[in-house]
């Protein structure tokens, strides 16, 4: 499973931070940060989701009010949102 995070879309509500500890607050930017991710293009970050964190990652994606977080299965199929 993979998570994709669009920092440019993020509005800093930080619900994802409450759902999955891979997300952290960056109060200087007013955005969340996806720990352990790499930027694949301007403002778009990607990382693998450990098996024991899959449920938390899904909750983080569902809690985002602007759909800045997308979850993909191992075949690249979009699961959330």
From TrEMBL:
Keywords: Electron transport, Iron, Iron-sulfur, Metal-binding, Transport. Gene3D superfamilies: 3.30.70.20. It holds the Pfam family Fer4_15. One of its GO terms (molecular function) is metal ion binding. It comes from the Archaea. InterPro entries: Fe-S_cluster_ET. This is Ferredoxin.
């Amino acid at each position: 499973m993979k998570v994709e995070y669009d920092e440019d879309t993020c509005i800093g509500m930080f619900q994802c931070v409450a759902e999955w500890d891979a997300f952290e607050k960056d109060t200087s930017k007013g955005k969340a940060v996806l720990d352990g991710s790499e930027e694949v293009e301007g403002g778009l970050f990607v990382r693998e989701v450990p098996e024991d964190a899959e449920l938390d990652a899904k909750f983080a994606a569902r809690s985002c009010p602007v759909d800045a977080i997308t979850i993909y299965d191992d075949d690249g199929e979009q699961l959330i949102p």
